[in-house]
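CORE FACILITY INTAKE
Project code: CF-77B
Contact: R.S. (postdoc)
Sample description: multi-component assembly, two entities in total
Requested service: structural model of the whole complex
Turnaround: standard
Below are the sequence entries exactly as provided by the requester. Do not edit them.
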Amino acid sequence: MAVTGALVTGGILLVLVGANPVDAYVEMVKGTFGSWFDVSLVLTEMVPLVIIGLGLVIAFKARIWNIGAEGQFMFGALVGGAFALRVPLQNQFLAIPAVLLVGALAGALWGLLVAAARVRWRVNEVISSLLLNYVALFVFAYAVRKPLRDPGGFKPTSERVPDQFVLGDVPVDEIRVHVGIVVALLLVPLVGFLVNRSPFGMRATMFGMNPEAAQAAGVNASKMTLRIMMLSGALAGLAGIIQVLGSELRLSNNMSTGYGFTAIVVALIARLRPFGVLLAAAFLGALTLGGDVIQRTQQVPRVLTMVIQAIFVLFLLLADRRRSN
Amino acid sequence: MTGVRKSFGSVAALDGADFYLRHGEIHALLGENGAGKSTLMNILYGLELRDGGEILIDGHPVDFQTPQDAVAEGLGMVHQHFKLVPRLTVIENVILGGKDSRAFRLPDLETSARKLEDLAETYGLPISARDRVSNLSVGEQQRVEILRSLYFGARTLILDEPTASLTPLEVRQLLAKLRDLARAGTSIIIITHHLDEVMESADRVTVLRSGSNVGTLEASETSQLELARMMVGRDVGILTQSDAIRDQKVDQSVKDKNRPVLRLSGVDASSRVAETGKETVARRGLFDLSLEIHPGEIVAVAGVEGNGQAELEDVLSGFLEVDQGEFAIDGKDCTTCSPEDLLNLGAGYIPSDRYRRGLIGGLSVAVNVSYDRIGEAPVGNRFWVDSKELMRLGDRAVEEYSIAVRGAGELAGTLSGGNAQRVVIARALAKELRLLVAAQPTRGLDVGAIEFIWGLLEEQRSRGLATLLITTDLDEVMALSDRVYVMYRGRLSEVPRDRESIGLAMGGANKQGEESL
């Protein structure tokens, strides 16, 4: 029902710009699931969405509205990337865990700022996390323009990260996806356990549903807020550094297409269920790539495909709302 | 009113209820929570529509669709929670929603104010029409509500739990005023569950039980005990318990005065959120509080709500830090304790706002029963929640505390007041406790639940638990406490355990002359 509604509304828009909606949709599906190569692209697109989305599920469960995943993602990418570019670790088995840790810690730090402001000065986390996105973005932009800039490069990007830091592809013949996908897939059950079966997750849920009752039951509100934001930020930061090492291979300003924001939608469509994040990320990843495809084959402007995406999401959320009422 | 019926969904709130009111009488409408008292009166006042039955006024049938219809027929209703706008003045509140406040024309405040003050004088209910409602005491606000009804020509007054938030002194004054009004020809219906007030003021009593009437009696020909039996349909133990038995218990508790479990000494605290714009409201906070509780003793803190009980509750549950003074449990300093620290010291807590602080509606009853033990045995360990054990403990609590649910997996948000409170208490008592802070543990509950909870608290006392009972219910104080303190304007004083002394202290004894109704 929701899908039909979205397809029809999207179709009307496609007709308005002079495209054949049926062709466009067929192309979208073909372009995303038509070949192993296309599937690989979808999977690659999913990696950051899944990892960030999981972190947001943790935060949203506790009703801590972390809107700053984009900034945490970029800051993780930046600090992790700088580590890879500047710290001469030679052994791959040492280098990769170390750089992933650094990226996650950087994201956690960015999340910690938000939590500290909320705990210490009661700053609403929606505002602080949103604004910190821009801080992270501009710090990143400065870094690739000045200290980390590739002197030989034309565009403001860093040099390529050294080989020992690069995440290779998964050893499956048909599929070309870096091993970040493995990390993402492992994190799904891990976060699932954390959220649903662990004392921490249970207390976070309690805190989200009724903070005062949770506190009366011994949940420390400050500690909970700090831990949740650090964890949420750490996952976004991890996604950032994985994106650098697996996909971009260098730091560049436009390395994020708004993953931190799309992941909010992922977490919400998944109704805050970790396994749902996987499906939601696949759906949104496919939608993004499908948009690229019809831009190329049907001359549908990229902006319109973004509108169609938004329509899909709105219809899904609408249907979800109606079901839960 | 004859054979009035009303159902909400599949539940029959009124099942053929009859009610007859005479001119110029005070008629008490008595019943447990959920007996249908308020529903019956809401129907009379046009707030709810009846499913069946007849309403006659002076012999002619009426059919009120809205309260405006009822007001036009000379009815007035004073709700338990006053419907006043605090920022407006008395007269503005009175004419708000009245007939002469037409759109685009400012009502004539001067004339109305004079009319109201004349009325107030006639009925001996002095009020200043120009005062802001936010500056008035609860008793004065109630006076405004009554005058508003009279202003619109009410010949019949319906008062829903009029004494709920008044001091004993104010209650007596109100009842006296009501008698004056009745003598002047106004018919008055009082919805209540306070037996003593019925006996003191009413001419006749109608008792409702589960939607139909048990009977109508002349107040002079009945007794509190008979009315209590009619209300609950059986003998009520708590009301027959004599003070002699209680005095024995006091003696016992004095004996083990070895070491206090809870000790407060010279405690000052101020509430986190400052009240703004209410200059004349009593200063918020606690001043120089001292109190000790020993094992096996129930100490009551009585008082009218809003005199610092909330702050005391917050201090003792770790939500509010002590500014100054000593606060110790079993000799350990607690002045900077968090709720978590207090739990670990063996302090249990029954919050006065059970839905906000005592329950998580979106989680199951089973989780609610044990959620303060998540992360420790027996509910799994630090890394894992044992959901089977959680369910088992939930089922056990449902049975032990007779919580009316189909299973422990049901969401706690669906529970009614009494059952919600049973869950809260089941959780508090599941732990090994040294001290129990029970704030308003039976507020709003029916007699059955009250009896059950009082029984639990007495049982815990006999096991040596020290209990601090913060309550505004005088019956509860008398039924349970070994010693009594009264809280007034943020200060605490120990008083003899009799109604007269408590009542006087609740009204700030030295101020009684000024606070006249």
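Facility notes:
- Residues 168-183 of chain B form the longest helix (16 residues).
- Chain B has a mean pLDDT of 82.
Invoice: internal transfer
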